[in-house]
Amino acid sequence: MPKTVAVLGCGLIGSSWIAAFSTQCQTVKAWDPQHSVIRPDASSPIQWCDTPEDAVEGADFVQESGPEDLAIKRELYARLSNKLAAHAIVASSSSALLPSDLQAGLSFAERVLVGHPFNPPHLIPLVEVVGGRDTAPSVLEEAVRFYKAIGKHPIRLNVERKGHLANRLQAAVWREAVDAVATGQATVQDVDAAVTYALGPRWALLGPFATFHLGGGSGGLAHFIDHLGPVFEDLWDDAKRPTMTSELKRELIDSTQKQLGGLSVDELTLLRNDRLKSILRIAALQLSPETRTSTVEKLNP
Length: 301
Ligand SMILES: NC(=O)c1ccc[n+]([C@@H]2O[C@H](COP(=O)([O-])OP(=O)(O)OC[C@H]3O[C@@H](n4cnc5c(N)ncnc54)[C@H](O)[C@@H]3O)[C@@H](O)[C@H]2O)c1
Hints:
Blueprint lengths: L3 E5 L3 H11 L4 E5 L14 E3 L3 H5 L4 E4 L5 H9 L10 E4 L6 H5 L8 E6 L8 E6 L5 H13 L3 E5 L8 H17 L5 H18 L2 H8 L4 H19 L7 H14 L5 H19 L5 H11 L2
Parallel strand pairs: 1-2, 1-4, 2-3, 4-5, 5-6, 7-8
Antiparallel strand pairs: 6-7
The protein binds nicotinamide-adenine-dinucleotide (NAD).
């Protein structure tokens, strides 16, 4: 049981962080301006607080998950300085903001970083850890240790960039997905099928580099880059930036709803989370050097 953790902002992401922390941490203190009436039972490790100052008092680690708005986040952080313990780390779930912008001018700037999860954080292991100009390297190391201790898979990014890493990867795929529909190349349903029935299952097991290593046959990634690398470079040059017109937006929304056959967001979330657990159990068989031996053993029992 590593830490007392505070969660500030308990919407989609904050609530899921609470679920993740509550099985791994002794105490989870939570605050949200719109959730002040929620009170869990006494045996729960969750303490609902009336103010962000109360929530961070005594916390070792703060996971801020308020709205994606720099001014709101900075205003919130400014309230914390008097109550924050001298060792406490403040991690923002921000999807795209730069940690240097979040921490600028704060008395505890060296302990502010981005700890970006993926929805839903209680199931998806990845957390992107990014420091800003003023973040102390030891704080980044401590954050990585913390996320590992609660069962996450943190990756530390060495350069702060808008959208961090994985959202930039998503943005590249989303650009092509939207462009395919905008140009009439494919339907929403077929774009989703291209991911669900080809890219997604492979990527769940191996990332783009390892996947293309296999794409090079016995010559591996070296052969792939020599053989098909120029094709992909040509496709990079061919990339178009679609414009999200109101007509295109309507088409994307209507076609997505149609393909889901009336499933509600809650129903689809339950279905997705249930299947996600099975995929993650299989994906845990990674070919990293540490796990290679045990993986090979598992693959050849
Ligand atoms: N939605 C995603 O897929 C996703 C994934 C990863 C990270 N994030 C990031 O997580 C953060 C939260 O996103 P979300 O999708 O949970 O949004 P959300 O709208 O579901 O939740 C935001 C919560 O913040 C609360 N709030 C409002 N004003 C606040 C304030 N001043 N201080 C603290 N909380 C306040 C709201 O009441 C709400 O409950 C954002 O920074 C977002 O970029 C989102």
